[in-house]
Amino acid sequence: MDKRQEMQLRQLTDRYPQLQVCWQAMTEAYELLEDTFRDGGKLLVCGNGGSASDAEHIVGELMKEFRLKRKIYTNHAEILKSIDKEMGSVLAENLQGALPAIALTGHSSLTTAFMNDALPELVFAQQVNGYGQRGDAFLGISTSGNSQNVIYAAITAKANGLKVIGLTGQRKNRLMNFADVCICVPEVDTYKVQELHLPVYHCLCMMLEDKFFGK
Q1: Are 135 and 40 in contact (CB under 8 A)?
Q2: Which string of b and e fits 190-211 if b means at least 16 CB within 10 Å?
Q3: Is the separation of the CB atoms in 137 and 156 below 8 Å?
Q4: Per-residue pLDDT reduced to its tens digit, 27-48
Q5: C-beta neighbour count of 33 within 10 angstroms
Q6: Distances in Å between the alpha carbon of 47 and those of 85, 104, 106?
């Protein structure tokens, strides 16, 4: 982890001192994600309820500009223009660099069909089985750490060669057993756990954006 990323992590713990206990886990999660994106992998994310919203939020921060400008590379811009000068110029000017990530909480036709035809608890696992490839990463968000559909997805991810990150509350939980690293924020009540999840994943997204798109 570079000094800039360490500084962002330090700023997080200055603002939220209670998250100091998550320093090591966040460092490990960041390094895992950095390796994933550097090697051409993608991130799969899921959760339930408020954590489903967090999954979508994370993907939004990774797939487009968050805090920094992300102009596409010049050689790619030139390729776009060579295909069609006018429309290629529009694309070259407006497309943004992205860190590939997919929230498994959408895709309503797929998920409702699977939940109707098969075991509903496997709805995330089925998508991991379809999307996940060795070298990708999986992030399971669960305030309790015991959400059955998230755990099934984590097991499937490990079987498919993905690295697994958990984001939970502080209580010992089942997701920890299948995660390569688990960030357990120091709260128990669901809403309090969720209040700490947001600054954690915002910080990770900022660290990644700075690494791949910073000067």
Answers
A1: yes
A2: eeebbebbeebbbbbbbbbbbb
A3: no
A4: 999 999 999 999 999 999 999 9
A5: 25
A6: 42, 8, 11
